């Protein structure tokens, strides 16, 4: 079953490059055993778990690295409780691990 989480993103006062509209506004992250996707009013993207480099749980956010320099940022404030945040992070970590195993064939 997919897991979903929607949250608003905050706008920085000055990023210096274009309007970056795809980065701001309501976002929905969907995670399935096959992929993680991020969608909003200005676009969407999906990444197979086998292509996710790592999932990092910080005090204030979950970072899903899709490359060495880019990550989906899922803020803690998007969750109603610490338990919900931790559960979502754990599910993402497990899906990432299982996605790696499918590619390498390891158990």
SSE blueprint and pairings:
Blueprint: E1 3-9, E2 25-31, E3 35-40, E4 43-48, E5 54-57, E6 61-65, E7 71-75, H1 82-104
Antiparallel strand pairs: 1-2, 2-3, 3-4, 5-6, 6-7
Characterise this structure:
This protein has 107 residues and is of the alpha+beta class. Helices cover 21% and strands 37% of the residues. The chain contains one helix and seven strands. It has one helix at residues 82-104; strands spanning 3-9, 25-31, 35-40, 43-48, 54-57, 61-65, 71-75. The strands form two sheets. Strands 1-2-3-4 form a four-stranded antiparallel β-sheet, with helices on one face. The radius of gyration is 14 Å and the shape is globular.
What does this entry show, briefly?
By secondary structure, the chain is an alpha+beta fold.
């Amino acid at each position: 079953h997919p897991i979903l989480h929607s949250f608003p993103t905050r706008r920085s006062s000055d990023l210096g490059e274009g309007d970056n509209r795809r980065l701001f506004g309501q976002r929905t992250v969907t995670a399935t055993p096959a992929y993680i996707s991020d969608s909003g009013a200005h676009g969407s993207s999906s990444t197979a778990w086998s292509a996710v480099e790592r999932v990092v749980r910080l005090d204030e956010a979950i970072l899903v690295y899709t490359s060495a320099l880019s990550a989906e940022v899922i803020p803690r404030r998007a969750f109603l409780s610490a338990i919900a945040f931790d559960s979502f992070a754990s599910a993402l970590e497990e899906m990432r691990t299982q996605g790696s195993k499918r590619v390498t064939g390891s158990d």
